[in-house]
Amino acid sequence: MTERGAARLAWTLWVVSIALALGAGGFLVISWSTPPPEGAFGFRGFAATFAITFGTVGALVASRQPRNPIGWIALASGIASGLQGVANEYAVWAMLAHDPPLALGELAAWFPAWIWIPGTAGAALILLLFPDGHLLSARWRWVVGLAIAGVVLASGGFALVPGPLENFRDVTNPFGIASEQPILTTAVVGETIYGVAFILSAVAVALRFRRSRGDERQQMKWLVAAGVFLAVTLVSSFADQIVNPAPAAQSALWVSLLVITGFASLPIAMGFAILKYRLYDIDVVISKAVVYGSLAAFITLIYLVIVAGIGAIAGSGGNVFLSAVAAAVVAVAFQPARRWAQRLADRLVYGKRASPYEVLSGFSERLGDAYSIDEVLPRLTRVLAEGIGADRVVVWLGGSGSLRPAAGWPDAEGLTRVTGLEELPDRAFEVRHQGEPLGAITVSMPPSEPMTQAQEKLVVDVATQAGLVMRNVALLDNLQESRRRIVSAQDERARKLERNIHDGAQQQLVALTVQLRLLEQQIERDPATAKEKAARLQVDATAALEDLRNLARGIYPPLLADKGLAAALEAQARRSPVPVTLEADGVGRVDQDLEAAVYFCVLEALQNVAKYADASNATVRLAEDDGTLTFEVADDGRGFDPAATGHGTGLQGMSDRLAALSGELVVSSAPGSGTRVSGRIPLGGSR
User: Fold this and answer.
1) Which end of the chain has fewer surrounding CB within 10 Å, N or C?
2) pLDDT at 123
C-alpha cells in the first residue's frame, strides 16, 4: 500500500471510531434519565472517550508513519472502544428504557462483557513498541505472545461463560455454554495473564526510557509515567477483586475510575510526545487540520448567520439573495480568515516560537534586507534563537583548526577563540560550503527544554543556508586581511628601500660630494695627487651607480621590462649564491603585471633557498599551458613540514600577489626531501 493509500485508510478508520463515539453519545443522550444497570463498570460514556482519544492519536501516527504499527494498534483500540460504547449505551436504552426490550438488546448487552479486553490490550502493545514500533529486543517477543494468549482466553471465557452478564445482571448470556466453572476459570486465568502482560509492558517501557537519550528520552518520559500509572491501577483493580469479590458500589466506582484514568492517560501521553516534542513530525498534519477545520467552521458560521438566521427573519423569499451575499462575504473574508487560521495553527503547534518555514523564510528576508555583510550574522543568530527558543546562539568563523566568535544572540560575551570544534562551549553544528569547513553554529538550550529532533533539523537547515553567507564573510575577512598584509608589505618595502638608499647610495653620494670639494682645492696645490683622487672618485661614482641600479632592480628591473621574464630571471640566477638552472620552455612576453608577479615570486623563492634550504642546487621552470602561466622553484635542500610551519611573511606575500591575479600558490615539501614552490596564473587573470 502506498503512503497516500495508508493515510486515506487511517483517516477512514478514524471517521469510523468518531462515528461510533457519536453513536454512543446519541444513545447516551436519549437514555440519560434511565439509571445504569447495577454494578456497571465506571461511568457511562467512558468507552466513547477512549474511541475519540485512541482513534485520533492512532490516525495521526498511522497517516504519518504507516509502517509503524503503533498507529494502527491505537486505531483498532479506538474502534473496539467505540463498538463497546455503542453496544453498552444501546443495551441500556433497549433493555432498561423499554418494556418489552427492543430487538438486539441482549446481543448489545453481551458485546461489552468481553470486547473490553481486546480493546484495552492494545495499550499493552503500545507500551511494548513505543516509539519506533519495535520491541526493546527479541527477548521480549514472548511478552507479545503472553498478551495475545491472555486476550484470547479472557475474552473467549467472558464471552461464553453462562449466567448473568457482568454489566447487565438481569440479562443471561445468550451465548453461554453449559460448563460454567471451566469457562469461568479460563476467563480468570486469561484475565490474570492479561494483567501480567500489562505489568511487563510497563517494565519494558521503563527500561527503554532508562536506555534512551536525547529526543527519544523526552518523548518517552510522558509514556513511562502513563504506563507505570496504568500498571498500578490494574494491579489495584485485580487486588480489589481478590479482596472484595462482591464490593460495594462506591468502592467499585473508585477502582473503575482509577482504571479508566490509567487507560485514558496513555493516548494523552502520546499526544504530549507528538505535540510537545514533534514525535513523528506530526506538527504539519495538525497544522493543516487546524487550518482546514477553522476555515470550514468560518464558512459554515457565515452561511448559518446570513442564510439561516437572517432568512428565518426575512422569510424564504430572499434565500437566493442571501446565499449570494453569504458567498460574497466568504470570498472577501477568506484570505484574512486563512491567515488568521494559519497563525492559530502555528501558535497551537509551535507555541510562541516561529514555525520552521518562518525561521528559514525570515532568515532569507533578513539576508536580502541586510545592507552589509556585518549585519547578516547577528540577524542569523537572532532569528534562529527565536525560532527554537534557545538561550544563546553563537556563530563561529574559521576552519576546523581555529574558530573565533563572530556574532551571538543575545550576545557572545566571555567567548574567545578556540582551536577546534571539540572545544566549543555548547552543542555545535559545523557549517560547510562545497565541502570546505567555514565555521560553526553553537546552540545553548534551556535546561528544562533539551533540543528536539525537529529543532535539530531546523538548525541543520539554517546552517546549510548560512554556508554561502559565511563563505562571503570569510572572503571579506580574507580580503581585508590580504589588503592589510599588502599595505604592510608595501610600507615595509618602502622603509627598506629608504634604509638601503640612506645607508648605501646616499652615503656614497655624500662622500663623493665632500671628496669633490677637496679635489677642487687640491687641483692647484698638488695636481698629481688630485689626478689620483679623481681616478678613485670615478670608481666610487661607478659603485654608487651600481648600487642605485641594484635598488632599481628590486623595485622593477629594467631587464624585465626590456627583455622579458626569462632574461630577467637568468640575470638573477647568475647572482644567486646557490647554483640555479633555468628552464623557460619558450615562454614569451605576457602581460606586464603577470611577469612582475612571477618574477618577484621566483625571486622570493630563490632568496628562501639561499637563506634556509641548505641546498646544493635549485631549478626554476617556466611554462605556458592552456592559457595559464606556471612557474616552479625546486631545490634539493633539507625541506620542512608545511603543516607544522605554515606560511611565513614571504610565502604569504607570494600567495597574496598571485591571488590578486586569480592565481594560486602551492608549497610541497617534506623533511629531507627538498622543497617545491609552484604557482599558476591565468593569462587573462589581471583584475
Assistant:
1) C
2) 86
Q: Which of 205, 116, 215 is nearest to 159 (CA)?
A: 116
CA distance 221 to 213: 11
Contacts 24+ apart (CB under 8 A), 187-191: 187/153, 187/154, 187/156, 187/157, 187/158, 187/161, 188/157, 189/153, 189/157, 190/117, 190/149, 190/150, 190/151, 190/152, 190/153, 190/154, 190/155, 190/156, 190/157, 191/117, 191/150, 191/154, 191/157, 191/238
Q: Where are the alpha helices (DSSP H) in 65-139?
A: 69-91, 105-110, 112-129
Using the structure block, give the residue that is written with the C-alpha cell 556563530: 395
Q: For helices 3-30 and 69-91, give the axis angle rounded to 10 degrees.
A: 20
Q: Determine if the peptide bond prior to 410 is cis (ω within 30°).
A: yes
C-alpha cell at 446: 534551556
| Inter-residue contact 426 to 442 (CB < 8 Å) | yes
Tell me if 61 sits within 8 A of 282, measured CB to CB: yes
pTM assigned to the model: 0.50
Would you tell me how many other CB atoms lie within 10 Å of the CB of residue 50? 28
**What is the 3-state secondary structure of 198-213?**
HHHHHHHHHHHHHHCC
3-state secondary structure of 581: strand
Please name which of 278, 254, 274 lies closest in space to residue 266, comparing C-alpha atoms. Answer: 274
Residue 417 carries which side chain, given as an amino acid letter? R
- Going by their DSSP bridges, the two strands 618-625 and 664-669 should be labelled as unpaired
Q: How many angstroms separate the CA atoms of 108 and 104, rounded? A: 6
Cα–Cα separations (whole angstroms), residue 614 to 571, 602, 603, 608, 610:
22, 17, 17, 10, 7
Whether omega before 437 lies within 30 degrees of 0, making that bond cis, reads no
Cα 459 from Cα 461, distance rounded (Å)? 5
User: Read out DSSP for 539-556?
Assistant: HHHHHHHHHHHHHHHHH-
C-alpha 94/C-alpha 108 separation (Å) is 9
Cell of 82: 467505540
Question: At which residue does the C-alpha cell 677637496 appear?
Answer: 518
pLDDT in tens, 14-63: 999 999 989 988 888 888 888 877 767 767 778 888 888 888 888 888 88
CA angle 149, 155, 157 (to 5 degrees): 95
pLDDT tens digits, 286-328: 445 445 455 555 555 655 555 445 554 555 444 555 555 555 6
Residue 351 zone, left/alpha/beta (φ > 0; ψ -120 to 50; rest): left
**Between the CA of residue 608 and those of 358, 387, 551, 602, 667, what are the distances in Å?**
56, 54, 19, 10, 13
- d(CA 557, CA 568) in angstroms, rounded, equals 7
Q: Which grid coordinates belong to 14?
A: 478514524
Q: For residue 279, what pLDDT band results from cuts at 50, 70 and 90? A: low
CA 658 to CA 652: how far, in whole Å? 10
Question: CA neighbours within 13 Å on the CB side: how many for 613?
Answer: 26
Of 271, 127, 137, 146, the closest CA to residue 197 belongs to: 146
Residue 136, SS3? coil
Contacts of 424 (CB under 8 A, 6+ apart): 396, 403, 418, 440, 442
Distance CA 467, CA 477 (A): 15
| End-to-end C-alpha distance for the chain, whole angstroms | 61
